[in-house]
Amino acid sequence: MTIDEKVLRDRILLKKEQARHITNISELLLIIVYAGAGAFILDLNVFRQRPIFFMYLLAVWVLGTTLYLLMRRVRRLRRDKNRFEQCMRGDLDHAISMAAYQVRLSQFMRWNMLPVGLFVLFSLWEGGKSIWVAGGTLIFFAFAWYAGGFEHSIYKARKRELQIFQKSCNFI
User: Fold this and answer.
1) How far apart are CA 34 and CA 66, in angstroms?
2) Which has the closest alpha carbon to 54: 67, 66, 44?
C-alpha cells in the first residue's frame, strides 16, 4: 500500500483548520452574544420603574459566563501556542484537542441554559407576566435544549471522526 504523504498532510491540515475555525467562531460568537445580552438585560432593568431582582441575577450570571468564556479562550490560546509539534502527528493531535475543547464548550453552554432559563422564568413571575408567557418561554427553552443536544452530537461525531482518523494513521 502506497501513501501519498502530501495528500495525507493536506487532509490533516484541512481537519485542523476546520476545528480551529469552528472553535474560534463558536467562542467569539458566544462571548459577543453573552456580553451584549448581559449589558442589554442590565440596561433594561436599571431603567425600569420597578426593577426586577431576578433580572439583575440573570445579568450577573450572563456577564459572569462571558468572563468565564473569555478566560477559557485566552487559556486555550496560550496553552495551544507551543504545545503541539509542527508535524502531521502534532497537527492531528492539535485538531483532536480543539475538537475535544469544542465538545466540552457545547456541553457547558447546554447546561448553562438551565440557570438562564430559571432566572428568566423567575423574572417573568416576579414581573407579573401571564402563565401563557411563562409557558411559551418554557417551550422555547425546551426547544433550545433539544437543539443544543443536536449541535453537541455533531461536535462529538467530529471528534470521534478525528480519533478514528488518528488510529488509521498510526504510522505517522
Assistant:
1) 6
2) 44
